[in-house]
Amino acid sequence: MTMKYQDLVRQIEKKQSFLCVGLDTAVEKMPKHLHQTPDAIFRFNKAIIDATHDIAVAYKPNTAFYEALGVAGWQAFEETVLYIKSKYPEMFVIADAKRGDIGNTSERYAKAFFEQLPCDALTVAPYMGSDSVQPFLTFKDKWVILLALTSNNGATDFQFTGEEKKLFEKVLDTSKNWADEQQLMYVVGATQAEMFTTIRKHVPKSFLLVPGVGAQGGSLSEVAKYGMTKDCGLLVNASRSIIYAGSGHDFAEAARAEAKKMQQEMASLLKEYR
Ligand SMILES: O=c1ccn([C@@H]2O[C@H](COP(=O)(O)O)[C@@H](O)[C@H]2O)c(=O)[nH]1
Fold first, then answer.
1. Does the keyword section mention Amino-acid biosynthesis (predicted)?
2. Domain enclosing residue 246, as ranges
3. Which of 17, 21, 26, 183 measures 20 to 30 Å from 235, CA to CA?
4. What is the pLDDT of residues 155-193, one digit of tens each?
């Protein structure tokens, strides 16, 4: 099942949620009883997915957590993506890999996530310019999520530089010529809540993938207040605060409880700001 803009809007409406659960799975942070199992990462992810699929609209496995484990890690990544798309095809799957290279190489990255695997979206670093992003955009029903204003402190080093326009504003304005809001989204950190009004001046309709609530301390209500559109336009990600909410045999129930808290807040924010 491909996920178009309106499909995403429908899922948000149906579930009253714009929650993206980040699957940043690390063996040492998992409950101890899973450590010795050969497919520990996939088993952990499966339990989290089964416990949250009805209250989240997206999953975002960050490839670094899987690549760090070599072949076995990548296998767990593949199994996770395939499990989500076969059991819960309505879920939006974002591979957070922050790719982007010369066109010839970007084309291969695109094939890895969009042909070999049924990911719906891929995060892409835009700093090598249009020909580095273009190959991802040739996949018709797939999404590109460009880094715009990231959640980390180092975002000030480059993204806030520039005279008339800051670098992140240039990314937003220039990339609008490459594709529209039906295929392009942007990463904007929740820790940058005061910048959402500015962001919306540049991309009034685009979906924003917003990491940085939970463990990084960003405010969900501020993000919604300044960033929400009539179609919601937000996918707010939380990784560690959800998947490591519990450390015992009931870790999946604990993750669900944490996700449910966020979903309930999201339901009231959708009423207030849309
Ligand atoms: O600006 C960015 C871009 C990406 N991320 C990623 O999102 C998650 C956040 O995890 P938490 O545990 O909820 O802090 C993680 O995969 C980051 O690599 C980001 O945080 N900020």
1. no
2. 5-273
3. 26
4. 999 999 999 999 999 999 999 999 999 999 999 999 999
Number of folded domains in the chain?
1
Distance CA 145, CA 139 (A): 13
Angle between helices 251-273 and 220-227 (to 10 degrees): 30
The pTM assigned to this predicted structure is: 0.98
Tokens at 94, concatenated? 């974002």
35 vs 53: CA distance, rounded Å: 24
Q: Residue 269 C-alpha to ligand 1 middle, in angstroms? A: 22
Q: Which residue type, as a one-letter code, is found at position 101?
A: D
The answer to whether 87 is a known catalytic residue is no
d(CA 64, CA 76): 12
Q: Give the ipTM.
A: 0.99
The Cα angle at residue 184 between residues 220 and 104, in degrees rounded to 5 = 130
Q: Is 145 in the pocket of ligand 1 (CB under 6 A)?
A: no
Q: Are strands 234-238 and 208-210 parallel, antiparallel or unpaired?
A: parallel
CATH number of the CATH domain containing 246: 3.20.20.70
Q: Which atom of ligand 1 is nearest to the CA of 216?
A: 14
